[in-house]
Amino acid sequence: MENPVLAEVTRGNVVESRHRGAAIVVDADGGVVFSAGEVGRPVFPRSAVKAIQALPLIESGAADRYGLTEAEIALSVSSHSGEPRHVETALAMLRKAGRDAGCLECGAHWPIGEPAARALAKSGAEPGALNNNCSGKHAGFVCLSCALDEDPAGYVKPAHPVQQAVRGALEAVTGAAHGPERMGIDGCSIPTYAVPLPALALGFARLGTGHGLPPERAKAAALIRAAVAAHPFIVAGTDRYDTRLMGVLGRRAFTKTGAEGVYCAALPELGLGLAVKCDDGAGRAAEVAIGALIARFLPMDEATRAAFAPLSEAVLRNWNGIEVGRVRAPG
Amino acid sequence: MENPVLAEVTRGNVVESRHRGAAIVVDADGGVVFSAGEVGRPVFPRSAVKAIQALPLIESGAADRYGLTEAEIALSVSSHSGEPRHVETALAMLRKAGRDAGCLECGAHWPIGEPAARALAKSGAEPGALNNNCSGKHAGFVCLSCALDEDPAGYVKPAHPVQQAVRGALEAVTGAAHGPERMGIDGCSIPTYAVPLPALALGFARLGTGHGLPPERAKAAALIRAAVAAHPFIVAGTDRYDTRLMGVLGRRAFTKTGAEGVYCAALPELGLGLAVKCDDGAGRAAEVAIGALIARFLPMDEATRAAFAPLSEAVLRNWNGIEVGRVRAPG
Prior knowledge:
2 copies of one chain form a homodimer.
Chain A: E1 5-11, E2 14-27, E3 32-36, E4 42-43, H1 50-53, H2 55-59, H3 62-65, H4 70-76, H5 84-96, H6 114-122, H7 135-147, H8 161-174, E5 183-185, E6 191-193, E7 195-196, H9 197-209, H10 215-230, H11 241-249, E8 254-258, E9 262-267, E10 272-278, H12 283-297, H13 302-312, E11 313-317, E12 323-328
Antiparallel strand pairs in A: 1-2, 1-12, 2-3, 2-10, 4-7, 5-6, 8-9, 9-10, 11-12
Helix pairs in contact in A: 4-5, 4-7, 4-10, 5-7, 9-10, 11-13, 12-13
């Protein structure tokens, strides 16, 4: 079966490239509201499920014990651009647990935010683990490990109590099995498990509503959503899609990007969860696809719709600033 | 019609992403040797046809008049990484025509080679037009313009004598019409024309053999091929695919990447031209696809095949250097 085109890229009057994929929208009982393409194929959610992976940090009492702020909780579910505020926030989390960046097992990379990367290079410094876009999630793992009185060393391994707790949360919230036969290693070295798209959408519908979750878990989910809505910069960064989108919609949408063309979203007031996987892994297509889905379901007044328009169709400009094309949902 | 999968991306035991596209191999008479997918759709070749775009620079006598070296001719067909040697070579070309970087109309961007970009940032400098991956092609356009006694100003515009000459070469070598209805603006502001994939492959079969070209044009094509084979670093840069591939195969293959998932190649000893377009525009897939096609047609001894293996299947490593997956031709 051929998946539908989720986004097309134009240049002049010609469609230059096409991105196919699958998308689904479900309610918090798993009822399918919208479905396109082959949604049953297992998909690695990658970073899109960081909010589910952070539930044990809250539920265990670790966040309370170390007095994590709203910004720090937002960082624990972020794929951040490695800007100074992200780096400082991750370090502050580690210090609250009596640790430092030496504990992080995510590996180092240059900030994914280009201006931040240039500034770091200009300063003569090299990137460290704090610059890794996952350092907030990993700082949360270290806090969880310390609160559980477990040695954080090896916290990225599937058998470590931290990853066991994370896997338990993923299975319970998405309702999908997370077995070793569908396990891959993520960019930051933790396990990632391929699950069908409806399970991801259901997980987000539950995160967005609390429906179907035990009370403590529903409370933790609400706390995470509030933290991200209050700190959309922290969860991504300058000019990033999640930051821009939640900057426009506030608490009305909770969205999260994942590598290789995954996007998940919750629309709490509608009780809906959304999940997109672009077949070819393209982030530019996943952004436009999730934007188009949100615009389709979420009622917006005229001003909001105008502010939202660039999020469902992106203008491509060349090095002289000339508009050369668009990335858009197919007509 | 659904295009076939040209490359798949694995993680653990799961195929995480799939890239579809079309590919064709023709001889220098246009005879089809291999074809996969919908090859009739117009495709912007983008930078893949820089060698054809550089023919007027040679044929006009401009390259001789200004005493362009082999390295400078290789740079005129490059999509370079903006490393110091690329920048110096582009500037040298401009100086030979009595001009400087102020003439370039390609726009500025940070070097596409990350180490070069970091080094430039570290030095406190900002990127200029010489760092643009197309600066060699543009320096060639300025040389051509000066040799034609035309003001270089506006040399990127479709009506300028430089672009008229370039368009003439593209039409003659590919055999395809290059009309305004299929024109887009490229990243560096010159026109790019969408043409069917067989025309691109035919153009490369002719470039690689001279067959079907007037003698002066065949000579210019041979000169360009020799220049690139002698300077595979110049045509791309550190760790770049064209540089690695021609580093292994030398004169046996002439390859060129284009943006949005295009790859073209000539295999002169076989008289073949190859063209690939990945539907979704992914460069990682176009690389693996052209590598697999070359490996399929070009006889290689054991040592060459071993050196070539990483060019038809790429290992993906995460930030801790752990192998997490592969980009490979489908099994």
